[in-house]
Design a protein that fits this description.
The chain contains five helices and 15 strands. The strands form four sheets. An eight-stranded antiparallel β-sheet has the order 11-10-9-8-12-13-14-15. Strand 2 and strand 3 form a beta hairpin.
């Protein structure tokens, strides 16, 4: 056993010795002797000297910031176009000529009038809503049928607190005698009435109402006119647009208060005849009226000489059931001529009578 043990001990010793030798060979070899480097004169050791020649930019060099793009010059912002005013809804206005009454009904008296298109200031209504209470430009209040006012509604309007009571009916007059057979009294039961100067004449003069009757659903209209007064009558021409006025001059005689329509054959600029010799203070008509005066059958003899120069200007006219009204201002002297016609009164007969009134309407 001892030799074996001894042998095993030798083997272990050799193994340990080998391990120790392995460790030593892993130790790095000793540093070699330092070799002296040649000296670099006056050159800093922190950075290599770079020649002064500038270097061209290289794509691999540090990226250059892009050149600043010039900003566009600010242009002044154009002003927006001025806003168009929002169209305002049309206010209440008269559809046509209309009477203004003292209360909500045709039984009330007429206190004024409106022309077609006149603006209307509505302040209230009657309980039924078929009449409007309005305020006139002069501050007075009156009533107009709602059907005659455009762009208006009774909805939302207050009921007037000052509706006048119904007028007291006039006492019953003695019945007139029965009409002569073959005739009939003129009908004055009208639904529409003239206004302003025509209305004043019509309301205040029964002779005018009887002559022309009710309005024929037309309103008073403007016209241009020529007119001249004579010793025994009046002549006038108008551009009013209705059938009986086409190509005529109107001649009104005062010897029996009838009128005639003479054909207008005058052409503007035509030569005038040799002047006549009127008496002192009298005139000979010329132009359109002069030609009708000379050539109309019996006109010159019945009218006589002109007593004032011809006038021209703007007038008005209105058609009625049985006639016409003309408003002709001779300067400040304003006249209304009421002309009867041939239908329907008297039955089968022709009416060519006329009346003259001074226009006293103020408004």
């Amino acid at each position: 056993m001892k030799p074996t043990y001894f042998l095993w001990t030798i083997v272990m010793f050799l193994a340990l010795t080998a391990c120790t030798a392995g460790v030593k060979t892993a130790t790095p070899p000793a540093a070699a002797p330092a070799t002296e480097l040649p000296a670099v004169a006056a050159t800093p050791t922190t950075a290599a000297q770079v020649p002064a020649t500038p270097l061209a930019a290289s794509p691999t060099a540090v990226a250059q910031a892009p050149a600043a793009t010039p900003l566009p010059t600010a242009s002044p912002t154009p002003e927006p176009p001025a806003a168009s005013p929002t169209p305002q809804p049309a206010g209440p206005s008269a559809r046509q000529a209309a009477n203004v009454r003292g209360g909500p009904g045709t039984v009330y008296p007429i206190i004024g009038g409106l022309r077609g298109g006149d603006p209307v200031n509505i302040i209230a209504r009657n309980p039924a809503g078929d009449w409007f209470q309005i305020r006139l430009p002069n501050g007075n209040e009156g009533w107009v049928a709602a059907s005659l006012i455009a762009n208006a509604s009774a909805t939302g309007l207050p009921v007037a607190a000052n509706i006048p009571p119904l007028p007291t009916p006039a006492p019953t007059a003695t019945p007139p005698p029965p009409p002569t057979p073959g005739t009939e009294p003129p009908d004055t039961t009208c639904t529409e009435f003239p206004i302003r100067g025509f209305g004043k004449v019509w309301n205040e003069n029964k002779s005018a109402r009887d002559m022309v009757g009710c309005t024929s659903y037309t309103v008073e209209k403007g016209m241009k006119f020529l007119a001249q007064r004579f010793e025994r009558g009046v002549m006038f021409w108008t551009d009013a647009n209705f059938y009986d006025n086409r190509g005529v001059v109107w001649v009104l005689f005062t010897d029996n208060y009838t009128y005639a329509r003479v054909a207008d054959t005058y052409s503007q600029g035509e030569a005038e005849p040799t002047p006549q010799s009127p008496p002192e203070g009298k005139l000979e008509p010329r132009g359109k009226l002069g030609k009708a005066w000379r050539e109309g059958a019996g006109v010159q003899k019945r009218l006589g000489w002109a007593i004032a120069p011809e006038v021209s200007g703007n007038g008005s006219w209105q058609e009625f059931e049985r006639g016409l009204m003309f408003w002709i201002p001779f300067g400040a002297d304003r006249r209304i001529y009421v002309l009867g016609r041939w239908y329907p009164w008297p039955p089968g007969g022709r009416r060519n009578d006329w009346l003259e009134f001074i226009d006293t309407f103020a408004g």
